[in-house]
Amino acid sequence: MQLTVGNLAGLVRLTLGDPRLAARAVMAQPLPVQARWGALILTAVLSAFLMQAVTALLPPLPGPDGEAVTPIGPAIWAGMVASGMVMTVLLVHHVGRWRGGSGQLGDAVLLVAWLQFIQLLTVLLQIVVMLVLPFAAPLVEIGGVLLFLWLLVHFVAELHGFRSIGLVFLGVVVTFVAAVFTLSALLLMLGVGL
């Protein structure tokens, strides 16, 4: 499937219905490595603007002194999202290869970018629900997290040629916990409070 604006909706439906087949379709896109990284950066920037929209819809959070907390700007959001995506790409690629997988780095970049695009659609849905049925917005948020995890596990399995979804799920959870622990320890050593 050649990815165009016209068949974007079809690929989204395929992703939700058969994520492994969708992962194959995404990886088959004839994009050079630079364009794959460009797609990742683009989704990070779009995510930042969507997060700004969500922040604008929510009441300001009070700080410790009672004053409203200044929202994070879009440039910082984009940097945070891009950093998280790059870390995800590296973990998906290197841990998968370490466990005997055959995935390529460029394919991991493209799959993480596509996964972030699906998350963008989830956030758009959350904004609509927030405006129409505010009490249901937390359910959409929880559903988005579960969808992210479900798609990530299937994408990793397809990327590396793993057959057991259960073992991939376990590997994703263990890798996430180890990454959070390592990052927290590193920040503490650098004197950055969490």
From TrEMBL:
Topological relation to the membrane, as annotated: Multi-pass membrane protein
Predominant cellular place of this UniProt entry's protein: membrane
Pfam families: Yip1
Keywords, sorted A to Z: Membrane, Transmembrane, Transmembrane helix
Domain of life, per lineage: Bacteria
Domain called Yip1: residue spans: 18-185
Transmembrane segments: 37-55, 75-96, 108-129, 135-153, 165-192
Compartment(s) where it occurs, according to its Swiss-Prot or TrEMBL record: Membrane
Name assigned to this protein: YIP1 family protein
